[in-house]
Design a protein that fits this description.
With 58 residues, the chain is α+β, with helices and mostly antiparallel strands. It has one domain. Helix content is 22%, strand content 34%. It is built from one helix and three strands, in the order βββα. A three-stranded antiparallel sheet has the order 1-3-2, covered by helices on one side. It starts with a strand and ends with a helix.
Amino acid sequence: MRAINVDERDSAWERDDARYRVYVFEGAGNAVTTVDILDATVEEALETATAMSNDDEQ
């Protein structure tokens, strides 16, 4: 599994394999962190998204 930080406004790529884009909104100003997850199953992508969203609660 690979995770790549990306600009959330970029959506011009096209691929045949699965790629998951995770958006995490933080704080009152809704700062966004966007990560593309490659070479992963949907379960792995969901686990990563959950872990990213819970980082501020620890």
